[in-house]
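Good morning,

Attaching, inline, the backbone tokens for the sequence recovery test we're adding to the shared suite. The designed sequence is right after.
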């Protein structure tokens, strides 16, 4: 494929004067391809190791998300990936003074007899308000702890 035949997903023409394009022209692509093909065996289903294959798929998914945001002129997309190495981490918009956006898991924790109990663990943003009812029901339904009534603070 020639430089002129290469199509970008955003219909942008590449600049022949770009230093990376010039560097690409100086590489012996046919020799590199023959070395690459020799390393592949006939029984190999995918030329990458599992870790690299996973990262490749994550990068492809990020690319698709970025292309969608570019085409739709938006700054958000469902289940946006913000970390190649941890694709399950989602941005959580909090609106705090120090950090508008936070990253990491959200926990719903309750204290029972001095012990912390994790009731909810989620990498997705969720409304903590709906968590309280679930936690109280889990508290009263704990047959192994013999809690038959609602906690004092919820009555």
């Amino acid at each position: 494929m020639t430089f002129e035949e290469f199509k970008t997903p955003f219909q942008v023409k590449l600049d022949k004067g770009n230093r990376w394009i010039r560097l690409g022209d100086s590489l012996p692509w046919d020799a590199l391809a023959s070395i690459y093909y020799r390393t592949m065996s006939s029984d190999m289903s995918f030329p990458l190791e599992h870790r690299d294959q996973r990262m490749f798929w994550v990068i492809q998914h990020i690319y698709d998300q970025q292309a969608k945001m570019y085409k739709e002129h938006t700054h958000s997309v469902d289940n946006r990936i913000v970390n190649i190495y941890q694709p399950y981490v989602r941005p959580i918009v909090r609106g705090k003074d120090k950090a508008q956006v936070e990253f990491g898991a959200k926990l719903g924790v309750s204290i029972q007899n001095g012990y912390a109990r994790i009731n909810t663990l989620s990498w997705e943003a969720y409304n903590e308000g709906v968590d309280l009812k679930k936690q109280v029901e889990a508290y009263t339904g704990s047959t192994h702890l013999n809690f038959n009534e609602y906690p004092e603070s919820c009555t």
